[in-house]
């Protein structure tokens, strides 16, 4: 990070642009002095709002009239002295207040993420909680909001720190056994450490094998709409999106590019991709569209296979071949099905098929509930364990698990200890806790070696 001579930072905490109220935030040792300078009054009582007029510190010109809050460190978001100014939310007001504050001693504009970074450095947040703040701000659906709040509350940090603590304990016991073999240490230290590692490894593997639900909840579940040309894929996409996102026409081969829409299905985020109709013998542009459609079908978490009810019971084989157990099958244009076909419960490639009509609305409510249920099972876990939410965490956990399983095969206690040290470090990378002092603490607390 860059080194600055001025160390009190200021930034607009609310969104840029026009609004009723904007919030400016200052953090650092010069925050209170800057507030006093631009208001000409002393700081209010900590954590009580007070009304103040804001003036330019050099020419004394009136800039705005608003509220101020004073949070003396360490009981603040960053752990430093923090001041908040609530002013009117217009460009001229916020720009002039920022300039006025930066004209005060020690104050400069903050870098991106610098408030949270300071909070992390001052032990107010671990890295997973800092990431959760970003996720909460980005959350578009209720389920994403809940996951971010849970993580911000420290649910993930507690899980990973708990594991790290267990690991440090096993390591400390092992270290003591290696370093002080003559001491009066329990003989079952080695087997105890192994049992601990095995159970930790099991818990970690269970957490990793969660179908990526936490990561998907953050990003949105990828759902691909596939099917033969003219089955009504774009019509269905538009109906789910409640807007004309994709072109609909009676011409087969209308959709070429993948058209993405973001949906909130019962609180769960979905990225729905409308794709080109699957068929042979088309022009090069359409062929590229079909290649993209197939690629989407392959990477999607869930597929909606749309068949054309107007040609029922003939089924497009390209699409049938892509139906698997993560496919919701629908037969569209139910309004065109012969009356006798309505009585049966059709199946396609062993999967139940729902008859719908985008035009008449027939079967659409049932389809939406079934789709939401499929999305929910893929994003919601069983039980109360917090979900793994980021690829960054996953890769550190995979490193950790690799080290743990290697440690169990280690031919010597020293090598086993080295693997455990690497495993501890990998876990520490997730929350940002990487010190070895904890290790010494455990050794000296549990063994009192050498008094
Ligand atoms: N009768 C009837 N026609 C429908 C229904 N849904 C869509 N259509 C019509 O079917 C035609 C094709 O619809 P699209 O949504 O463009 O179909 P598509 O599957 O996206 O087609 P491509 O992009 O060409 O692969 C249009 O004329 C729609 O109006 C329905 O439920 N009933
Ligand atoms: K079409
Ligand atoms: Mg289309």
Automatic annotation (TrEMBL):
Transmembrane segments: none annotated. (6S)-5-formyl-5,6,7,8-tetrahydrofolate binds at residues 25, 84, 124, 451. It is found in: Cytoplasm. Its main location: cytoplasm. Residues 220-376 form the TrmE-type G domain. The keyword Nucleotide-binding applies. It comes from the Bacteria. Keywords: Cytoplasm, GTP-binding, Hydrolase, Magnesium, Metal-binding, Nucleotide-binding, Potassium, tRNA processing. SUPFAM superfamilies: P-loop containing nucleoside triphosphate hydrolases, TrmE connector domain. Its cofactor is K(+). Gene3D superfamilies: P-loop containing nucleotide triphosphate hydrolases, Probable tRNA modification gtpase trme, domain 1, tRNA modification GTPase MnmE domain 2. Homodimer. Heterotetramer of two MnmE and two MnmG subunits. Exhibits a very high intrinsic GTPase hydrolysis rate. Involved in the addition of a carboxymethylaminomethyl (cmnm) group at the wobble position (U34) of certain tRNAs, forming tRNA-cmnm(5)s(2)U34. Belongs to the TRAFAC class TrmE-Era-EngA-EngB-Septin-like GTPase superfamily. TrmE GTPase family. This is tRNA modification GTPase MnmE.
């Amino acid at each position: 990070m860059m080194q600055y001579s001025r160390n009190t930072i200021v930034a607009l905490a609310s969104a840029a642009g026009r609004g009723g109220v904007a919030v400016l935030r200052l953090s650092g040792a010069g925050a209170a002095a800057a507030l006093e300078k631009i208001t000409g009054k002393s700081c209010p009582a900590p954590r009580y709002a007070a009304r103040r007029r804001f003036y330019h510190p050099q020419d004394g010109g009136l800039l705005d009239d608003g509220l101020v809050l004073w949070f003396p460190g360490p009981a603040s978001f960053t752990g430093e002295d923090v001041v908040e100014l609530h002013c009117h939310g217009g460009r001229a007001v916020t720009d002039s207040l920022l300039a006025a504050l930066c004209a005060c001693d020690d104050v400069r504009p903050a870098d991106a993420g610098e408030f949270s970074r300071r909070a992390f450095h001052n032990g107010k947040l671990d890295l997973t909680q800092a990431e959760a703040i970003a996720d909460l701000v980005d959350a578009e659906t209720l389920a994403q909001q809940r996951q971010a709040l849970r993580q911000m509350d420290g649910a993930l940090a507690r899980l990973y720190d708990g594991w790290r603590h267990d690991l440090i304990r096993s390591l400390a016991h092992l270290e003591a056994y290696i370093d002080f073999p003559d001491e009066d240490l329990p003989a079952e230290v080695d087997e105890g450490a192994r049992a601990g590692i095995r159970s930790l490894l099991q818990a970690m593997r269970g957490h990793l094998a969660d179908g990526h639900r936490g990561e998907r909840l953050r990003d949105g579940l990828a759902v691909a709409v596939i099917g033969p040309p003219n089955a009504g894929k774009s019509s269905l996409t538009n109906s789910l999106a409640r807007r004309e996102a994709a072109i609909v026409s009676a011409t087969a081969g209308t959709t070429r590019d993948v058209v993405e829409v973001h949906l909130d299905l019962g609180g769960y985020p979905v990225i729905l991709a409308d794709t080109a109709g699957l068929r042979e013998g088309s022009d090069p542009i359409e062929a590229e569209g079909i290649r993209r459609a197939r690629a989407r079908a392959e990477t999607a978490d869930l597929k909606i296979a749309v068949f054309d009810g107007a040609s029922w019971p003939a089924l497009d084989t390209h699409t049938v071949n892509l139906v698997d157990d993560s496919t919701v099958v629908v037969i569209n244009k139910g309004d065109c099905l012969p009356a006798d076909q309505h009585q049966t419960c059709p199946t396609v490639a062993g999967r139940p098929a729902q008859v719908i009509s985008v035009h008449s609305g027939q079967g659409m409510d049932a389809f939406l509930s079934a789709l939401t249920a499929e999305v929910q099972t893929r994003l919601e876990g069983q039980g109360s364990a917090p979900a793994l939410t980021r690829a960054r965490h996953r890769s550190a956990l995979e490193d950790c698990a690799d080290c743990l399983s290697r440690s169990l095969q280690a031919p010597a206690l020293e090598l086993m200890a080295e693997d455990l040290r690497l495993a501890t470090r990998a876990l520490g990378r997730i929350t940002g806790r990487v010190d070895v002092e904890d290790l010494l603490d455990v050794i000296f607390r549990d063994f009192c070696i050498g008094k």
